[in-house]
Amino acid sequence: MIVAGIGCRKGAPQQDILAAIAQALQAAMLSPDRLDLIATAAEKGGEEGIAAAAAAFGCPLVLVPPGELKIAGEKAVTRSERVVALFAVPSVAEAAALAAAGDGAQLVAPRRVAGMATCAIAVSGDEPGENP
What we know:
It is built from 5 helices and 5 strands; from the N terminus they run βαβαβαααββ. By secondary structure, it is of the alpha/beta class. It has one domain (2-123): 2-Layer Sandwich (Nucleotidyltransferase, domain 5), CATH 3.30.420.
């Protein structure tokens, strides 16, 4: 399973989120049609740009509860002090992707920034993360 984790500033437009996803997928050398889920922090559930991006990809949107986000955040590889202060995780994008991808998940693209949005790509433990 391939998951795009999203972080963003309040009111981030859909185009920034789509651009961040595109950058992260390209960094992971994955085709957009391989994306299975889009995930974000539960607190971001009201962000219209994230919901619109998920709809554009035809992917379910998973809202990760704070406890799960914090546990997965321990495996994050990038860090934003602003995000730590707001969400108690180093990267919402990375933590959301890892949490939604499940046990054994691995980042294949750390956080990428586009405008007001960030995206990281994680794969579940049984996914090689490569295009066949």
